[in-house]
Design a protein that fits this description.
Number of helices: 11
Shape: rod-shaped
Strand content: 15-25%
Helix content: 25-40%
Distance between the termini: 84 Å
Structural class: alpha/beta
Length: 311
């Protein structure tokens, strides 16, 4: 047995056919079978028959048939209010549950240095051509699992020998510093009196010059010991210290090329050395089904090609 306060489900047998209610709502609103028929793409006689069927099913008259006019009876007015309210609730519910297009987006992960110095200054060109695409950039030193992290594209900074995916560019390294410091540097030996700006790299805690090593090897300065050292977790902070005149940083080109072109950083010793590391683009499996992610990868490739050349 049902509890006293429980209501049994409404059987379809308790309701008149819904197509009859639809015709009734139109006729009650227009107070004209002819106008209701035109709205419903039916004949006037068809609407009239449906109203008669509804009245027969309910056992009451819903309309007063007057000469060239209709008026709702008391029962008709009650039913009209109920039908209108029900239809409005159905429209609201339909609007809430109707499927809406998912927002278009591309999720990207890369290092803070690549994001700050290379990607973000160029990103407006992609968004200008794809204004409907939401680009989400995760700048982190962590190597994210693309599938598990729901990321479409990764730009990885790795040794050339371990690079996978699309190669963007290899890296060239050379010392860079503010112009006032560069004026005091005439040969590599002059670095002995300067502050070394470097970054901590995992597994190289006892080698403060690990990011300098490719250039030091080319210059034959493996035993170089500068006056003191400022160490940072992020390359962006080491570069900011160099721009502020706090020491000499190893410059990564083309990453910091804009700072060299603007004169904020200067190369006191000319050419750089290949670091044997570079930037590679990996795509998640699901990116193959995301046209916007594919467009983003092609855009990265085009931007990298355009950026080749002197800093």
């Amino acid at each position: 047995m049902l509890p006293e306060n429980a209501k049994s489900a409404v059987s379809s047998a308790d309701l008149p056919p819904l197509e009859l209610l639809r015709s009734f709502e139109a006729a009650a609103r227009c107070l004209s079978f002819t106008q209701a028929a035109a709205e419903l793409f039916l004949t006037q006689s068809a609407v009239s028959r449906q109203i008669q069927q509804l009245e027969a099913a309910l056992g009451v008259l819903l309309f007063e048939r007057r000469h060239r006019a209709l008026a709702l009876t008391e029962a008709g007015a009650v039913l009209q209010r109920a039908v209108v309210e029900s239809l409005e609730r159905l429209r609201d519910a339909t609007a809430r549950v109707r499927s809406v297009p998912l927002p278009r987006h591309v999720a990207v992960t890369t290092t803070p240095g690549f994001a700050s110095f290379w990607l973000i200054p160029r990103l407006a060109r992609f968004t200008a051509d794809h204004p409907e695409v939401d680009v989400r950039v995760s700048a982190t030193l962590d190597v994210l699992d693309l599938e598990r992290s729901r990321v479409d594209v990764a730009v990885r900074f790795v040794p050339i020998a371990r690079g996978t995916g699309l190669a963007l560019f290899e890296e060239t390294v050379l010392p860079l510093c503010a112009p006032e410091i560069a004026a005091r540097l005439h040969e590599p030996a002059d670095l002995l009196g300067q502050t070394l700006l470097t970054i901590d790299e995992p597994g190289h805690a006892n080698t403060p010059t690990v990011d300098w090593e490719p250039w030091l090897q080319v210059m034959g300065l493996n035993d170089l010991r500068m006056k003191n050292t400022l160490r940072f977790t992020l390359y962006t902070d080491a570069v900011a210290a160099a721009v502020a005149g706090q020491g000499v940083v190893i410059g990564r080109l083309p990453l910091v090329g804009a700072l060299v072109r603007s004169g904020q950083l200067v190369s006191p010793f000319g050419e750089g050395a290949a670091s044997r590391r570079g930037y590679f683009v990996d795509s998640a499996r699901r990116a193959s089904a995301n046209p916007d992610a594919q467009d983003f990868v092609r855009w990265l490739r085009a931007e990298a090609d355009a950026a080749q050349g002197p800093p």
